TrEMBL record:
It comes from the Bacteria. Pfam families: NTP_transf_9. This is DUF427 domain-containing protein. Residues 2-88 form the DUF427 domain.
Amino acid sequence: MMKAIWNNTIVAESDDTIVIENNHYFPPNTINEQYFTKSESHSHCPWKGQASYYTVEVNGEKNPDAAWFYPEASHAAKSIEGYVAFWKGVEVVE
């Protein structure tokens, strides 16, 4: 079971992540939505498409753009469409 942890709190948990480029992508129904707020940030990956971001907030502390997902992934990355990955200090552990 993979867990995404930030500020000593499990923000996502799944035994069905997809690993791409050393990042675990969590199915959208496995994130604890109470900790996520959509951000206005976007970035572009040449082969996955346009990424959108979430700010993760736990116990009043915000971690801006600490999670990302591809709402409309390219054909090559359809398997992770909507799945959520983490960085910026969010630990992903087994």
